[in-house]
Specification:
The complex is a heterodimer of chains A (90) and B (457). Chain A has 90 residues and is of the alpha/beta class. Chain A is 50% helix and 14% strand. In chain B, helix 2 packs across helix 3, helix 5 runs antiparallel to helix 6 and helix 7 runs antiparallel to helix 8. Chain B is α+β, with helices and mostly antiparallel strands. Chain B has 2 domains: 204 residues, Arp2/3 complex 21 kDa subunit ARPC3; 226 residues, Phosphatase 2c, domain 1 (4-Layer Sandwich). Helix content of chain B is 56%, strand content 15%. Classes of the chains: A alpha/beta (90), B alpha+beta (457). Chain A: This is Putative anti-sigma factor antagonist.
């Protein structure tokens, strides 16, 4: 939580969270992700998720958060998506 | 000559024992403690001036005569006073000690009293330069050596006749430097110990205070949560209903509710607020009241969920949300119309076939976004059908190996006990979860509601 806040406070606007090392997420964890997403979108950024463990993905699904977050199988895809979005503005 | 110096040293060491006791007593006074805390009030400074001044006088009186000159620890009091309490204490104490020495007379009288006053004042200056902190053991000892050397130099410069002064300095320099620095060492040790002790005590007090606060918060959160759960379960026509909630040590903000509607309809709510403790409990109260108010008037489950969501989303700060399942049971038509706002899907056991269904709909936790779509669905409930509403505290209860109770175990427990009444089934499932977790502290509330289809009337 502190780390996400730290990243956003430090000026990060486009974040890909790689969940490959996470096999459980609590509702408090969901809250951290949601709060970060809200902050980032308000600031014109985004938070994309990659490599969700099936169980973690299910937790996101149950809460309906899959409607909210962009979720990718691979980290590169999420990063690529950010890159693609950036192109027109360059 | 060597024997005389030895005996002087020995006597001075004896005096040091007195210093130890004096140092102990002085450092335990309230004024001294307050001075250590930086509270240099007039009163504290006056008390310290008197104490260290008196100690300086004692240093002179208890001195040992060497060739008609007194080797002593007169400088010790003013030096320590100055190092701990600043220039006022250092100067004040040294004026008392130095003044007393001046009145004693002798050809080194003037030099010795000036030396004491200078030592006390310089020590006070060191305190200021050291940003109003005690210099520590090494610093105090080094300064003592320097001040005593200065003392000797002044005697050589000021006292007349010069030759006699030299004899005095030769005899007293070593014992005076030694005894004063040993004295400073003793005082400094006690002072630094005291400072450390006080810091530890402060930390410990802070820790206990935090712990107390946390405990109190948990109790408050639990009381809020429990006081907003329904006291009784409504009697239904042709249905058996029961519910219970076990708050975790750190309350999670689960709740359930029954909202009576017209025409034999009953609103059923089970919900889990994100977060813990008092914030979660307060958010639970807000969510519960919002849903209750939204459910007034004969609205569909979808309408209730949408209006409650919009109200909660407008209030939800810092990503707070609540997963909520709302259902309207029609006791006449025996149908359940429901909306699932991001909650663990309740399970329905078909009493005849033993098939399990999960009550999923397209929805999202409340408070996440306004204007969220909330899909409504409907099932019919026959006699013997069992609906189990639960929060993730049930499936995510862990045993000592951190394995979770899980949905499978829940399904099995429900299947095995589907013949029981709703109340007994709630008890049975709760018992199974608690037996599984074997007293491991649970991270989340365990909340259950069971609706069972009874005889048609």
């Amino acid at each position: 939580m502190k780390r996400m806040e730290g990243l956003i406070d430090g000026g990060c606007r486009k974040i890909v969270a790689n969940f490959s090392g996470v096999d459980y997420i609590s509702s408090s964890g969901l809250r951290v992700m949601l709060a970060s997403l809200k902050r980032l979108r308000k600031a014109g950024g985004d938070l994309k998720l990659a490599r969700l463990h099936p169980y973690v993905r299910e937790t996101f699904e149950i809460a309906g958060f899959t409607q909210l977050f962009e979720i990718y199988d691979r980290e590169e895809e999420a990063l690529g998506e950010f890159g693609r979005q950036d192109l027109p503005s360059r | 000559m060597a024997a005389i110096i030895d005996s002087v040293l020995l006597t001075l060491i004896e005096k040091i024992c007195v210093i130890v006791v004096a140092a102990y007593l002085i450092t335990r006074t309230r004024s001294f403690s307050e001075i250590l805390d930086g509270r240099l009030t007039a009163k504290n400074q006056a008390v310290m001036v008197l104490i260290f001044g008196a100690f300086s006088v004692f240093g002179t009186v208890s001195g040992v005569e060497v060739f008609g000159v007194i080797a002593n620890v007169r400088d010790l009091g003013p030096v320590i006073g100055g190092l701990v309490g600043g220039p006022v204490v250092g100067l004040g104490a040294s004026l008392i000690g130095g003044g007393y020495r001046f009145l004693q007379g002798g050809f080194t009288g003037l030099a010795c009293s000036i030396a004491t006053i200078l030592a006390g004042s310089l020590a006070g200056l060191v305190y200021i330069l050291n940003r109003r902190r005690f210099v520590g053991v090494v610093g105090a000892v080094i300064l003592s050596v320097l001040f005593e050397s200065l003392h000797m130099l002044l005697v050589l410069l000021i006292a007349e006749p010069w030759q006699e002064a030299l004899i005095v300095v030769r005899g007293t320099a070593a014992p005076m430097i030694a005894s004063n620095s040993v004295g400073a060492f003793i005082f400094a040790m006690m002072i630094t110990n005291l400072i450390r002790e006080r810091e530890t005590a402060e930390e410990r007090d802070k820790y206990f205070l935090e712990l107390e606060k946390k405990k109190m918060e948990l109790n408050i959160a639990r009381e809020i949560q429990q006081s907003f759960l329904p006291d009784t379960v409504p009697q239904l026509k042709g249905f058996d209903l029961a519910a219970a909630s076990h708050p975790a040590k750190e309350v999670g903000g689960d709740f359930y509710d029954f909202i009576p509607q017209s025409d034999g309809k009953m609103g059923l709510v089970i919900a889990d607020v994100s977060g813990k403790s008092v914030p979660a409990a307060l958010f639970m109260v807000l969510s519960r009241a919002t849903v209750k108010a939204s459910a007034a008037g004969d609205k569909t489950a979808e309408e209730v969920a949408k209006s409650a969501n919009d109200l909660i989303a407008a209030d939800a700060k810092s990503g707070m949300f609540v997963t909520l399942f709302y259902a309207i049971l029609d006791q006449e038509t025996r149908t359940l119309r429901y909306v699932n706002a991001g909650h663990n899907p309740p399970l329905v056991l078909n009493g005849k076939t033993g098939d399990l269904t999960l009550l999923k709909t397209r929805g999202i936790a409340m408070g996440v976004m306004e204007d969220a779509e909330m899909e409504e669905r409907e099932i019919e409930l026959a006699e013997g059908d069992v609906v189990v509403f639960y929060t993730d505290g049930v499936t995510e209860a862990v045993d000592d190996g951190l394995d979770q109770f899980g949905a499978e175990r829940l399904f099995e427990t429900v299947k095995k006990n589907c013949h029981l009444s709703a109340a007994d089934l709630v008890k049975e499932i709760t018992g199974a979860v608690l037996a599984f977790s074997k007293g491991e502290p649970q991270f989340d509330d365990i909340t259950l509601m069971v609706l069972k289809g009874g005889k048609m009337e």
